[in-house]
Please model this.
Amino acid sequence: MYLVHAALRPLSPGLQLPLGARDLLLAAVRPDDRIEHLVVHSDATPGPALGVYLLADSLAEAEARTAAFCGRVLAAVPQLAGWRTERAAVPLVAPFYERLLSASGAPGRNGPGPLPST
Model:
């Protein structure tokens, strides 16, 4: 299972996602989308984002199917008119783990001090 974030952007400034956007999106899910769960982050910065959990055989497939799903739904659901998908990508978690490791204070590659191999 993959988590893909789809960044949404309004076609006109000030446009807000409608209340119940998640329900509108869920109603448009088809079995071949292989979407397991959807989360709408209306207050994300710089704009709303969808968290799409879906089954896929590869990262590239997950991102492509999320983009296709968003494009299809935004074009077909009247209440979501005026929105476009800016990008659909798996969020990077490496920076999060790098911060955790460097905060531990342990010497080594991800913390202060020489590399263990030196």
